[in-house]
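Hi Prof. W.,

I finally got the Agmatinase prediction working! I wasn't sure whether to trim anything, so I left the full sequence exactly as given:
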Amino acid sequence: MKLDQAYSGNVFICSSEHYESSKAVIYGMPMDYTVSFRPGSRFGPSKIRQASVGLEEYSPYLDKSILDSSYFDAGDLLLPFGNPGRSLEVIGEYVRGLLADDKFPIGLGGEHLVSWPIIEAVYEKYLDLALIHIDAHADLREHYEGEPLSHSTPIRKAAALMGGKNVYQFGIRSGSKEEFLFGRENTHFHPFEVAAPLKMELPKLGRRPVYVTIDIDVLDPSCAPGTGTAEAGGITSKELLDAIHLIAGSDVNVVGCDLVEVAPIYDPTEQTPIVAAKLIREMLLGFVK
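And this is what came out:
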């Protein structure tokens, strides 16, 4: 299912021109209407694509090349600016179409609220779904200043939908006291670290279907300053690559993924979209079987 509302512009490196024969589909969600600090992640998908031009096609980590992969970059969804409710509906409708076509969805955000309708759609297809959430922030609020549609709420919504014990959170180092209490009591909650607890949890998931959502701000601002809510004390890009490779090398059945909250305006060096593009390459090669 091609995007009739796709933008005209650059695509992720080596993207196929053929949707029908592609196993995976990359799509952008340029939405940043509900952020609580700095906007700008609507420009993330386009900048990640631009940065991908500097990548080698070959991953020495996985000994695979994207030249041997089959994926299609559909472009960005045309979202009604300033209308988060309708934007989430558009995202959900599109992802349901991808899943109906047996495509592996790879989403580029955009703020983290865009992950919520994707999780809903994937959960409809895989009722035993587990969620792996890698982020600096817990995203477990019920609302932000009275607004339930906020980039601080998607994982709380996912926990309500799927059951908190199907949600695995890693790298969390920011949130309200209530969020940390909720996480510790209701999800598999692993603050501060990513790779070590991930290595412990993955064998427990067996061959379950898993959706992976990664917020770029799990990285320390020294590694990724181009994000809306940067948070000191994060992990390195190598640690995040290690986490992706741990998931890729496990028995879990990854059925979709996204990378969100790249806000390139805050990073004139462009190191944030450069890191993000490499992460997408590794997820594409590691997760899409």
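Strands lie at 24-29, 58-59, 64-65, 71-76, 104-109, 130-134, 167-172, 188-191, 209-215, 253-260. Does that look reasonable to you?

Thanks,
D.
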